[in-house]
Amino acid sequence: MSVLIENARILDPVDGFDTVGALCVQGSEILARGQIPDGFEPRRRIDGSGLWLIPGLIDLAARLREPGQEHKATVASETLAAARGGITSVVVPPDTEPPIDSPAEIELINRRARQACGVRVYVLGALTHQLEGQQLAEMAALMQAGARGVSNASKPLASLLVLRRALEYATTFGLTIVLSAQDPALTGSGCMHEGAVSTRLGLAGIPEAAETAALGAILALVEQTGARVHVARLSTRRGAEMIAKARADGLPVSADVAAHQLFLTEVDVAEYDPNCHVIPPLRGQRDRDGLRAAVARGDISAICSDHQPHEPDGKLGPFASTEPGISALETLLPLTLRLVEDGLLSLHDALARVTTGPADILGFAQGHLSAGARADFVLWDPTAMHEVRRKDWLSAGHNTPFFNWTFAGQVRETWVAGRPVWTRPAEDTA
Amino acid sequence: MTETQIAHPGARLPEPGPLPNRLQLTDDGQLRHMLTIEGLNRELLTEILDTAESFANMNEKAVKKVPLLRGKTIVNLFFEASTRTRTTFELAAKRLSADVLNVNINTSSAVKGESLLDTLRNIEAMNVDMFVVRHEESGAAHFIARHVAPGISVLNAGDGRHAHPTQALLDMFTIRRHKGDFTKLKVAIVGDILHSRVARSQIHALNILQTGEVRVVAPCSLLPADVDQLGVHVYNDLDAGLKDVDVIIMLRLQRERMEHAHLPSEHEYYQLFGLTSRRLQLAHPTCLVMHPGPANRGVEIESAVADGPHSVILEQVTYGISVRMAVMSMVMGAHQA
């Protein structure tokens, strides 16, 4: 089908394109951006007056909970939530149950994704067998089955020797290795940032060094092996500075941050709010500001949701025994654009952190609006005031600290491969 | 680029007043629950201590019972072993004529699947009026207070490392009985501050009562991060920390601190941080020696000191009953006339 979207403000971070004009879609691809080619006869015309047209978001970390944790969420429920949030591609970490350590799990997830709303679903394969941190997983088989990279999620590796061997083996196939920088012993039973707030609340803290010590070891092994490593979910200012220095030194490393880390701090844990129980933890204001600065500079080139939906019981208990994580697909784009309002970075740079940035990290072809690109895009209504409300929420996990936050702007429509996968219902405005 | 505090128009506005009070006080400032000392004001702490004073006088008489809580049901819900705290709560409840039910739940053997909330709902269904809760997790009392039916009060009898408010109150009561005015006092809390809910509650209480100086004395491996922000002076040397103090509060050292590499040995700890007769002489001549119990003699305190003339350790236990009677009667809105 051919579609013409007219009079929208087209914003494409790939080259800073910012023009009110037309986007022509032919089949699943973008035919032209800006002007209408001669002889283009669209079957459907959409008036985009007053709207922004941006590339669909690519989210580097979204737990969809299938297989194994369908009581929390499903591929169907969460891809629809992603679509509502303007996300058109999600990357699933391998810590499903069982973990994604064979082609069978990948096939299962792909099958579920085909039955769902159409949002593209990608997976990271396990770095080690069953994520146990001992033996290597069959990475070549995982790659052939479609894994976009390998990762041990947040599970520890037995030793730095295992990490070294895993980096070397993955590099054989040019695979990107996604690592979280958390020293398991220094993390211990910690459940929040170690500092004045953890002291006051009597909660076991996770020191900054849990991240920086692990990151130091990772960077040393990247230097040794030349492996292409992506560091997932930075939480400290010092960690961001280490990444900046490593990149300046020419190491093949990149990094991302979860959107909530750019807005919340340890103080938001307040009186044991389980919705602020996340790993890595919300840290101090200097960390938040340091992460923001690294996002602005581009040393952190991707912002992700780190989506972790939970059933209500998962968050019902004393703080430390609740399950960590935020249901975050539906707030990724609003929070990212809030960074522009806050004066942190330009609109194009903000969009790049959720489109071209993550695309470059895992080698995706989408994430921009050039002619020939996949027709994955979002129509954004910049004038609609949008309060985050439980009744509009599509994720099966209601565990978010952002209910009742109000944002300027809202997703009007989300398109994947030239088809609308989500359209805002009339009542979903506030 | 913005690196300062950013006001988000959409963010929830902080509600007025110190946070814990939204849960534990009624709108007119009365105690609804007793979860933590933090955030309570001096007037309320003083009122509790005054109320406890009247019960203490009664407890020294032949007839030790008043009908203030007759017909009320109080449940001691203990997820963590305790003898002294539970028995003093039980005795306090009985002296107020309440019915008492003791429920001990060994969490390590608790069947997975029965959540804390399930346990709570089941007991709640028996129409109880108050829970006295001890739990190994910080924030457990807050969690329970948030989820109990309206009208049920929750008393925190110790949650993880977070708070043990009635212990701190009985310590304040003991200090006040001996010393009167807090503003001129120097108080040293010595030992495992990191893992101590007692120390945290004492620090809040001492500061609210405007104590002249609050010190903590410990090796760095037993101090929590940024402890000075609780409003204390930090000493790593016991001799320096005891100089001229009016009250010494010794904390119990758990054996597992050696296993988890916080300390090398009990022996070295005693050499450096044990309260001995010699060290006691560094303090003010009328110094009180306190301990929340049970004391490890020869580990954190010399027997001669624990049993010596400065020690008020057994008085603390006695006053624990009066203080708990005061808190129980106040949360039930049954202030003694």
Automatic annotation (TrEMBL), chain B:
Known catalytic reactions: carbamoyl phosphate + L-aspartate = N-carbamoyl-L-aspartate + phosphate + H(+)
Gene Ontology terms: biological process: 'de novo' pyrimidine nucleobase biosynthetic process; 'de novo' UMP biosynthetic process; amino acid metabolic process
GO molecular function: amino acid binding; aspartate carbamoyltransferase activity
Record carries keyword Transferase: yes
Function: Catalyzes the condensation of carbamoyl phosphate and aspartate to form carbamoyl aspartate and inorganic phosphate, the committed step in the de novo pyrimidine nucleotide biosynthesis pathway.
Pathway: Pyrimidine metabolism; UMP biosynthesis via de novo pathway; (S)-dihydroorotate from bicarbonate: step 2/3
Annotated positions binding L-aspartate: K112, R197, R252
InterPro entries: Asp/Orn_carbamoyltranf_P-bd, Asp/Orn_carbamoylTrfase, Asp/Orn_carbamoylTrfase_sf, Asp_carbamoyltransf, Asp_carbamoyltransf_Asp/Orn-bd
Protein name (Swiss-Prot/TrEMBL): Aspartate carbamoyltransferase
Key words of the record: Pyrimidine biosynthesis, Transferase
Binding site for carbamoyl phosphate: R84, T85, R134, H164, Q167, G293, P294
Subunit structure: Heterododecamer (2C3:3R2) of six catalytic PyrB chains organized as two trimers (C3), and six regulatory PyrI chains organized as three dimers (R2).
Enzyme Commission number(s) from the entry: 2.1.3.2
Entry annotated with the keyword Transferase: yes
Domain of life assignment: Bacteria
GO cellular component: cytosol
Organism: Thioalkalivibrio versutus
Enzyme type, top EC level: transferase
Entry's family note: Belongs to the aspartate/ornithine carbamoyltransferase superfamily. ATCase family.
